[in-house]
Amino acid sequence: MIKKLLSPLLLLFIFIFSGLGTYAQGDLMIMPKRLVFDGSERSQEINLANTGSDTAVYAISFVNYKMTEKGNFEQVEEQEDGQRFAEDFLRYFPRRVSLAPNEAQTIRVQLTRTGNLEQGEYRSHMYFRAVEEQTALGAEETEESEGISINIKTVFGISIPIIIREGESTTQIDLNELSLNTEGENPKLSLVINRSGNMSVYGNLTATHIAPDGTETEVGMVKGVSVYTPNSKRYFSFELRNAAEVDLTGGVLKVSYSEDKGDTLATREIEL
Amino acid sequence: MYNFSFNKTYFWLLLFTFSVMEVSAQENPPIPIEVEVRTSRNLNFGSFTAGNSGGNVTVSYDDQRSVDGDIFELNFGQPVSAALFDVYANPGTIIQIEDMGPFTLENQETGLQIQLFINSFSTGQRTFVTQAPNAQTPNEIFVGGTLRIPSDNSGNLPGTYFGNFTLNFIHQ
Q: Are strands A120-130 and B113-121 parallel, antiparallel or unpaired?
């Protein structure tokens, strides 16, 4: 083994480095984090800002995802049963932006061909991808000729959902299969969000402990939990990080699923 | 008879009332909604040697390097490190790291390729809930991966390999 190592023909020094350690490509801030066209507006804006110290270029496109029952996203090219992509009904400009450090730009997203929209919901995800700077051949420093060097650069993207809603919502939400697991570092609450109807839901889950004397304590919260069409259920679990002060062996645990603007979509209580 | 003290009382009462109205008319500024990702540190596999049978070099999210196959670790040159991304979002926001790859690193002169798998996350899974107390505090996401060095007897393995790995953060 050692002899083999010492053989110059077989020995390859590999230096793995990742370009410039401080190369801050794609320090991107996006506001807002989702866009919903529900009939009240024909166009909306997304603000991009480069919060890094280098000029960065972003390509903007659409991607489509399906959601699994566990809440993971998987990219799809074709619409699944009950799923409708929004990209054919959206126009946006610009499709590529170059932002200097601390520079911001607005992306305008417009509805189009609205006469062809059917009742229900359409969804695509706008994808912002940092564009890799092309290096001219020969411009890179070459490592020692016997070795291998590997130059890895990180390129990242962020996607946000853009949703078009046409007509009245018939969506109903129900929470069930609540169970509390107190074995870990923090207690963990698992539940199933059931969805029926023609539109997806997006909201915050809040767990509140109600002690026997009526004292209410918010013990856990997760923001931005969605169940997208066509899915009828989502399995979800989250840690109750503020449960240290309460006695989870008694009282009631109330779980609420509410929209950002405050409307409660569903609640469920379990006796502890 | 003109009662000055009565008017004075009313004057102060009126002033107080308007000052209260003035305060209550002030609206709270809107909370900015944002999701932001910054690259703090890139993925670095350090230095090692490879025989002609190839093998794998893995760097876990906690900067631990392990090798298998015809690979031998060296302890000089670039320090081993996982990639570090700072994710800024409101507390309790769900973000998913998209499953992508493997990524190809290519030697532009010989065409030989090395594959890179991104497979180790400090979040334990690809979907995570941001825990930082506010949108100005970063949620640190450490990401590790595996390099698959091919077996090669041609002597063409040396050279510089270029490639990117793409990491997508999906906001629900």
A: unpaired
Out of A13, A27, A72, the one facing B38 most closely (by C-beta) is: A27
Q: How many C-beta atoms lie closer than 10 Å to residue A112's C-beta?
A: 13
Distance (Å) from the C-alpha of residue B24 to the closest C-alpha of chain A? 21
| A&B contacts, CB < 8 Å | 198
Contact between chains at A16 and B93 (C-beta distance less than 8 A): no
* In contact, B166 and B78? CB cutoff 8 Å: no
Q: Say which residue the tokens 């410039």 belong to.
A: A20
Strand partners, A165: A121
- Residue spans of the domains in chain B: they are 35-154+161-171
Cβ of residue A135 closer than 8 Å to a chain B Cβ: yes
Of the candidates A132, A151, A225, the beta carbon closest to that of B160 is on: A151
Q: What is the pTM for the complete model shown?
A: 0.79
State pLDDT tens for residues A156-204: 788 999 999 999 999 999 999 999 998 888 899 999 999 999 999 999 9
DSSP-derived secondary structure for A36-50: EE-SS-SEEEEEEEE
SS3 content of chain A, % helix, strand, coil (to 5): 5, 55, 45
Whether residue B138 is preceded by a cis peptide bond, meaning omega within 30 degrees of 0, is: no
Q: Does domain B35-154+161-171 have CATH number 2.60.40?
A: yes
Instruction: Identify the pLDDT of residue B38.
Output: 81
pLDDT tens-digit series, residues B11-53: 565 555 554 444 444 444 444 456 788 888 888 888 777 888 8
Distance, CA of B170 to chain centre: 12
CB B65 within 8 A of CB B59: yes
